[in-house]
User: Which sequence fits this backbone?
């Protein structure tokens, strides 16, 4: 009976699995797991380091 009960999903940045999003419009979850989020932070840090060298 509720019109807005559909769960919004976005694909994970690494494995492209659908990630359910929180109800808040202002926050998004980009990764399906904490390990994928850490992996992204490591890859970004290495890229930043290599850019600065």
Assistant:
């Amino acid at each position: 009976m509720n019109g807005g009960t559909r769960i919004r999903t976005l694909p994970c940045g690494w494995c492209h699995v659908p990630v359910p999003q929180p109800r808040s419009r202002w926050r998004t979850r980009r990764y399906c797991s904490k390990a994928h989020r850490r992996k992204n932070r490591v890859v970004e840090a290495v890229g930043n380091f290599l850019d600065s060298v």
Remarks:
- The longest helix spans residues 34-52.
- The chain has one helix and two strands.
- The longest strand covers residues 9-11.
